Structure to design on (101 residues):
């Protein structure tokens, strides 16, 4: 049991989360009328949220639709920068703490 706990503590869960999030963003359909949402405001029935449209905007930006991306949510590029920077930090930390080179 202790070895399982040690392995789980060393597993880069946050890195897997961010990479999975990028994959999920790239696979969504930004033109769909309904979409799956984890937004707590959406779950509570509010129609407005400051992050609403960010995932779809990031998808449009990845597909080269800059104007549509900007009009849907102007912080898509900043979100990419933050996520990639965090992934880079986690990989760098993983390499130094686990001696992967």
């Amino acid at each position: 049991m202790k070895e399982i706990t040690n392995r789980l503590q060393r597993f880069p869960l946050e890195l897997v989360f961010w990479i999975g999030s990028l994959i999920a963003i790239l696979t969504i359909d930004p033109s769909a009328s309904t979409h799956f949402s984890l937004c707590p405001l959406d779950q509570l029935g509010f129609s407005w949220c400051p992050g609403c449209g960010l995932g779809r905007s990031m998808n449009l930006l990845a597909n080269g639709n800059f104007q549509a991306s900007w009009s849907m949510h102007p912080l898509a590029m900043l979100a990419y920068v933050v996520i990639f920077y965090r992934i880079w930090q986690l990989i760098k930390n993983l390499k130094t703490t686990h001696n992967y080179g």
